[in-house]
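Kindly review this record before class:
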Amino acid sequence: MISFTKAEAPPTLDPREATSAALFPLRAAFGRVITLSQVIADALTIFACYMGSYIYYTEIYGGWSPQTLPQFAALSCVIALLYVFIIDRVGLYRREISLLNIKELRGIFHVGLYAAAIILSATFYVRFMTLSRLTFTIAMIATPIALLLQRRIFYKIHVLFHIKGWSQTKVLIYGAGRIGVHLAKRLFQSPSLGMLPVGFLDDDTARHQHIVKANEMGPKHGLPVLGGEEMLARCPALGIDQVIIALPMARFDRNQRLVELCVANQVKYAIVPNSYDQFIQQIEMFEIGGIPILRRRQNHASYVYLALKRVLDFFVSLGLIAALSPLYLVIGLAIKLESKGPVIFKQKRVGLRGREFSFYKFRSMFTDAEKYARTPSDPSDPRITGAGRWLRRTSFDELPQLFNVLRGDMSLVGPRPEMPFIVSKYTPLERLRLEAKPGITGVWQISCARGEPIHTNMEYDLFYLRNRSMLLDLAILAKTAWSVVRGIGAI
């Protein structure tokens, strides 16, 4: 819900946000220092993993190595440089990595595979590169895990720097409508980008001097609408680093006019493309002889991926059902003791290509609750039982869906299945969600927006449809497991 509230005084930027132009070089240098620090941290992590595996093999395991300690240290330095080169080629030193940093997780897997292939090839052709198999195996397993942990810590430190304002890019969004507000929410939810929205500009003068408020959008007091295009000339003085033009339905000449004003005032700019909804739905860019061309995007998954995914779904769900059967009994008993009614809640949901199926969950609400009403968005909702609050917070209420996965109605990873009355109102864009088998978890389920309606956050499911692969599925499962351990559920 977006609201425009008349400001008691003409809205301006907070003095803490209106950074002086003198700080621009400092922030730019800080960004380069952060990147260099990440490179050094990666190299040291990789070096430590290989040296640790060598010391374990020679000192603890008592094995013999063809290299002395100094020789292996020198070799580890070369391997660390190789990893850093691959990490750079994969694109993991770019700040704009991906939605929820999931591509970074997948990228680390790729880095490990590429490095293993190169090192194994080198040991075949170069004699002094001979490594003990145990040393190499330990290092190759430990390095991706250590890189992920190190980068997670580094990410937290980087976010702290953004909060302090040391490396933030101050952003104005031109367009206070639905897309502009949605963009602001996503920037607030992605602090690793270092882009801080501080206000809006808009062509609609009725919105000027108002405060925009929306759920999950940054400061509780909202963001001010500072004015229209006349404010672009003041951006450098206000410490604004970039203007994002979010007028996807505007005419080309209108966007072009705003771009020219940004260039004239030496303000960096970015543009949400025209016909945004259609763009994220089915358009991609490629080149012919250096000429950019737009074409319809194909989201079809390969048959090999779908076959491997089904094999993974079947055996993982079967194994988890067997392993968790005692927990099933405990949860069922807790539900029965607290309230009357069935242990399992069944509901019709819409799956692949619009096919309806019976969807299973542990019952977390009282039996007199409307079966097909909107899902609770607040843990204090009176429809939820005491045990249900715990089940929803831990996501244990989802465990019966493993039987849906075993049957083939659902997958471990995929878009969340919706109720038929919601799907019946889907737009053509929203119906794209039905091109993949629904999942217990997915990109939306582990995002900051999981408390919002599924169909209002289409970019998560479209991101998954465009990028789905076994590595991405494993990355999502790993993030889901971490969320469950931390006790972060659907509510």
